[in-house]
Design goal:
Elements lengths: L2 E7 L16 E2 L2 E2 H11 L5 E6 L4 H9 L7 E6 L4 H9 L6 E6 L7 H14 L1 E7 L6 E2 L5 E3 L7 E10 H13 L1 H5 L8 H9 L4 E4 L10 H12 L4
Parallel strand pairs: 1-4, 1-6, 4-5, 7-11
Antiparallel strand pairs: 2-3, 6-10, 7-10, 8-9
Helix pairs in contact: 3-5, 5-7
């Protein structure tokens, strides 16, 4: 079985209030993107990596990250789009193999054990999402900001990446999404993760497996401070 990982590094991260995209910010003397790349580079079940970057960033990411840190599994660097789902779609066009991991480059605390759990899961279930049970009580609000419903906490998970699928399953689902202009632009389905696409266009149920409470996505400046604490306890 051949396995490929798509690492998404095309986002601008406007909420970071930084001129530098969050995946290129420095975390303990290395770019944020380095950490997720290293996790997939070191994971024995990953055969290749497709890196999705912003327009015009190909040479810089090769010269500043891929080559100097010796990431030999990077087989392709492709251009992303304005929306995440376009970046994923573009990445899927360069994927070869039986299974594909899709991971946000701004989640640097992914590790080999998490990757292994997802890999073992996808071989049985076809579609796997990494996540963790939520700790807080969640409220569903109405349009005016009043509480409408309180779902049972034990049924709620905070979804993370990587999300892992049979390659042809997720590729065909994304192709159906791209062909369905109404669902992409008509407000019926705002695409926020890959499982949504597989659920909507394949009918295959997606299985949840445990990730880590440290596997957060860097979104705001405060997240970099939290990530610095998490990184201090690990060896890279």
């Amino acid at each position: 079985m051949q396995t490929c990982a798509i690492l998404l590094a095309a986002g601008q991260g406007k909420r970071m209030q930084s001129e530098v995209a969050k995946q290129y910010l420095v975390l303990r003397e290395r770019p944020v993107l380095y950490y997720s790349l290293k996790a997939f580079e070191d994971a024995e079940m990953i055969d290749s990596i497709v890196l999705v970057v912003g327009e015009g960033e190909h040479e810089a990411v090769m010269e500043k990250i891929v080559t100097p840190y010796g990431f030999t599994k990077v087989r392709a660097v492709v251009t992303g789009g304005k929306e995440r789902y376009i970046s994923v779609y573009n990445g899927l066009q360069a994927v070869t193999g039986d299974y594909v991991f899709i991971h946000d480059g701004a989640r640097p605390m992914v590790d080999c054990e998490m990757i292994r759990r997802a890999y073992e899961g996808v071989k049985k279930e076809r579609a796997i999402v990494v996540g963790m049970p939520v700790k807080d009580t969640i409220k569903i609000a109405d349009e005016e900001g009043y509480i409408k419903e309180t779902p049972r906490r034990e049924t709620l998970w905070a979804v993370q990446t990587p999300q892992v699928f049979e390659t042809e399953l997720v590729r065909s689902a994304y192709q159906a999404l791209m062909d369905d202009e109404q669902r992409r632009t008509g407000g019926k389905m705002a695409v926020t993760d890959d499982a949504m696409v597989v659920e909507a266009y394949s009918g295959v149920k997606v299985k949840l497996v445990e990730g880590s409470y440290e596997n957060i996505k860097i979104t705001t400046p405060e997240d970099m401070q939290i990530m610095d604490v998490f990184a201090a306890g690990r060896e890279f």
